[in-house]
Amino acid sequence: MIDAHHHLWDLGAVHYPWLMARGVRRFFGDPAPIQRDYLLDEFRAEAGAQGITGSVHIQVGAEDGLSEAKWVHSVAEANPDWPIKQVVFCDLTAPDLNTQLDTFQSLSTVVGVRQIVGRAPEEDAATGTNDLLDNPKFAEGLREAGAHNLSFDLQLIPELMEKTAHVLKQAPDTRIALCHAGSPHDRSALGLADWAEQLQHLSALPQVYCKLSGLGMFDHNWTPESIQKIVETCLEQFGPHRCMFGSNFPVDKLYSEYGTIIAAYRKIVPQGDYERVFQKSAAEFYAFS
Hints:
Blueprint: E1 2-6, H1 17-20, H2 40-48, E2 54-58, H3 65-78, E3 84-89, H4 97-104, E4 110-114, H5 121-127, H6 136-147, E5 151-154, H7 161-168, E6 176-178, H8 189-203, E7 208-212, H9 224-238, E8 243-245, H10 258-268, H11 274-285
Parallel strand pairs: 1-2, 2-3, 3-4, 4-5, 5-6, 6-7, 7-8
């Protein structure tokens, strides 16, 4: 089994500005309980107890993306019995993009890049990350990532899905992993219906996969019943062959134990789809041997 979306951090090895910012509430809640080292041993103990045997590390807002990538790579090299692939931060609009991608690819663990398009309406209004969709260099960068055989992890909100689909069509050879089921932040019946409608713009594109992850960020009191419609909609639109499980730990550790999350997905995902959702889709997308 593979966890296709988690984070690690060593606050003494890499600088993470958001983890240093005390008293700042984020779109996912109060980060205070996770503003500490979260290392592989702790993650392995939590994930391994549920049958996970490998994982994908996703960049998490380090001040220097390359420093983070080198640290993650060193963790992987020190733990060969736990296969790790990593998705790094890279500004796809940077003038030296090719050089950056080449440098990242000198690390054998690097299989993809992430540049967040949208987190939540309130934070996006302050950061302006949505503007990437209007920058022609972003589409060019997506194509270049694909040319380097790197995937792109896409984090955004439902309001941006139609516009994003038009951008992704300009990079049809770049594999896309949609983070957190597209962040359905409005959990009302109307909000979920709108999310499901907007999601079709992305699920219609064959290069887009969907991560069943991070569903606690906008509903800290979630239950298997409250996320069932989200998971079932993703499975219906993408098919199990394009869906993969991710814990989003330790962020979702703020609201749930690892075992609680796994149990919820096992309850919702049809048993015949377990192998795809919990292992094969991620293994194929992120090039696990």
